[in-house]
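pasting for the record
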Amino acid sequence: MKDILLTADGDLNVNEWGDIILTDSVRQAVRVRLLWFFSEWRFAPEYGVPYFEEILIKKPNLEGIKQIVRKEAMSVNEVTDVKNITLSFDKPSRQAGIFFDLVVGDETYREEVLIDAGLRNNT
């Protein structure tokens, strides 16, 4: 699936002529899925990760969160497995870290997705 290539911090990656660059990156597709908050996109509010509803709450179910992460990552074509999911939370700053091994065919990638709910407006 073609997508617009993003930089490490999520901005559009453009070449020296100002053109956008396309990619087939499975790793980027997984990252985008995991950064998408539930109900964030008004045209498909049923999509996204339930961060405010199930993850960034007072007593989160860690095994349930790992299942959510695995389900979201596995929904991307070409992902064959998600292993070694670990989570970190910084409650005062409302930040979470998701760390996992992403298996795509014969390749395994160590991935990290940082969620900063303090920058989001839960409306």
